[in-house]
Amino acid sequence: MKQSPRVLGRPRHDGNAKPTKDLVLETATRLFIKEGYKNISMDDVAKACNVTKATIYYYYPTKGELYTSALIAMMDRIKLSILEILEQPIPFKERLEQLVAVHLSATIDIDMKNFMKEATINLSEPQLKQVQASENDMYQTIEQTMQVEMDNGTIRKGNAKFFAHNFMALMTVGYFKDGDGKTLLGSVDVTAKEVTNFFWLSVENK
Question: Which domain, by its residues, includes 198?
């Protein structure tokens, strides 16, 4: 039986290997994290993946689309991690502290603020909206948990969205580094404890 010809431009796929699209996305994300958007070209991604540049363009027609997908994939992973932590059957304050610790550990080499700044500068409006929607999903995950804990009387009544955004804003303090590359509070565990305690003082149901 004659084999059907491949669609023009469609990369070959090895059934035993990681799907090429996934490989491209993971590799590009790693390169963007290390070097930033402007310093990484589609050719750099192709070389790192050991595929042709045509293969990269088959899956991601522009660098903007690749960067958009990288950001969304990163935020989706963070959201899943947040859900996993917040659904644990342990006290809410402990979950929040663990959330800060895990989040900071996972993003220790990532300048999230710069990541989003580069997105604002380099992405089209539709692409930026996709990224912002994914970012909002992360906030909503925490917001929903805040509302549940309010209803349960664990924390005081208030605006769950406001609480969630304040918590995430406090978490970003952990990203700060001085000229010597040192964080404000030292270790991730100390930062997680201090951030959580600071937040808890404002929402504790006394």
Answer: 63-203
Shared domain for 22 and 101, answered yes or no, is no
Question: The pTM is what?
Answer: 0.75
Is residue 45 a contact partner of residue 56, using CB atoms and an 8 Å limit? yes
Same domain, 45 and 69: no
The answer to whether 155 and 205 are in contact (CB under 8 A) is yes
Strand partners, 183: 177
Dist CA 79 CA 27 (whole Å): 20
- Please answer whether residues 68 and 120 qualify as being in contact, where contact means their C-beta atoms are separated by less than 8 angstroms: no
Cα 111 to Cα 28, 33, 52, 104: the distances in Å are 16, 8, 29, 11
CA–CA distances in Å: residue 134 to residues 47, 75, 76, 103, 177: 29, 6, 7, 16, 26
- Tell me if residue 204 falls in helix, strand or coil: strand
Query: What is the per-residue pLDDT across 136-154, written as a single tens digit (0 to 9) for each?
Result: 888 899 999 999 999 999 9
The verdict on 16 and 35 lying in the same domain is yes
Contact criterion met (CB below 8 Å) for 205 and 156: yes
Cβ count near 136 (within 10 Å): 12
Regarding whether 18 and 84 lie in a shared domain, the answer is: no
Could you tell me which of 195, 78, 49 has the C-alpha nearest to residue 141?
78
